[in-house]
Write a structure and sequence with these properties.
alpha+beta; D-Maltodextrin-Binding Protein, domain 2; 9 helices; three-stranded antiparallel β-sheet; 3 domains; six-stranded mixed β-sheet; Arc Repressor Mutant, subunit A; disordered C terminus
Length: 277
């Protein structure tokens, strides 16, 4: 079936606002028009996307899945349109994504010195989707930490870093010079299973408030130093690998050149190349 992108954009607006009137206003269309378009989309897909009440709408399971798929689809479409316009203007752009706490500036400076005509854009990556921008076209190269879904990606391992426990200064374990995983048993660990946070800032604010502790890579802890928090080495936790990542089918010269430069400038370990279908 051919999916109408206009109807899909209408659905995304409705999902974001949770109300037909507010969504229609944001789209500059009449509410009955929006309602007809959403019902037509449901007929085309053959499943209900919304549970309607007199005051609001709630997404069904299918609706939540479509919202997530649409987010990825529109990111891909927008990135593709941007590249078309850049090609028309003769612009060469390289988007480099980087995970929280990882610093890519040294590689950017080294690459810019050899390729001054390429415009470099930096994209901070969210921890729960650090590989997604490499799949949907928002980023050309990523500086990431494992683990992530490597399907369809090509990665170069360039180093590793230890994990530390982040604690409020008032926590009894904060007086220790180092910790083990056994000593952290029974603590409320703020991770995706215990409590999903939207940013590192939110996580560390929760820790400082006494809502739990976190075990994070050292570079993340160092990026958020504050007087009400401490971090202590977790001596028996596995180190976290850092790597440079590109799409498996990427063949653009500027992407491959940056990958080579970044591997030399950022690498602290023997290069190991892996690619997963």
């Amino acid at each position: 079936m051919d999916l109408d992108l206009r109807k899909l954009r209408y659905f995304v607006a409705l999902a974001e606002h949770g109300h037909f009137g507010r969504a229609a206003e944001s789209l500059y269309i009449a509410q009955p028009v929006l309602s007809r378009q959403i019902r037509a989309l449901e007929r085309e897909l053959g499943c209900p996307l919304l549970t309607r009440t007199t005051r609001s709408v709630q997404l069904t399971t299918a609706g939540r899945q479509l919202q997530e798929e649409a987010r990825v689809l529109f990111a891909t479409v927008d990135a593709g349109i941007r590249r078309v316009h850049e090609a028309d203007r003769g612009v060469q752009r390289l988007v480099v994504g980087f995970a929280t706490g990882l610093h890519v500036s040294q590689a950017v400076r080294a690459y810019a010195a050899t390729s001054p005509d390429v415009q470099i854009e930096l994209l901070p990556l969210k921890w729960w989707e650090q590989d997604a921008p490499l799949r949907d076209g928002r980023a050309d190269v990523g500086y990431l930490r494992r683990p992530f879904d490597e399907t369809g990606l090509r990665s170069v391992t360039i180093g590793s870093e230890p994990k530390v426990a982040c604690l409020p200064v008032t926590h009894p374990l904060a007086r220790r010079r180092s910790l083990t995983l056994a000593e952290l048993e029974g603590e409320r660990i703020l991770d995706a299973h215990a409590r999903r946070t939207s940013s590192a800032e939110e996580k560390f604010e929760l820790i400082a408030s006494g809502d739990g502790i976190a075990v994070v890579p050292l570079s993340v802890a160092r990026s958020y130093l504050r007087p009400d928090l401490v971090h202590r080495p977790v001596t028996d936790a596995e180190d976290v690998e850092t790597c440079l990542v590109v799409a498996r089918d990427s063949r653009e010269r500027r992407v491959l050149d940056f990958l080579a430069v970044a591997t030399r400038t950022l690498g602290t370990a023997p290069v190991r190349l892996s690619a997963v279908d």
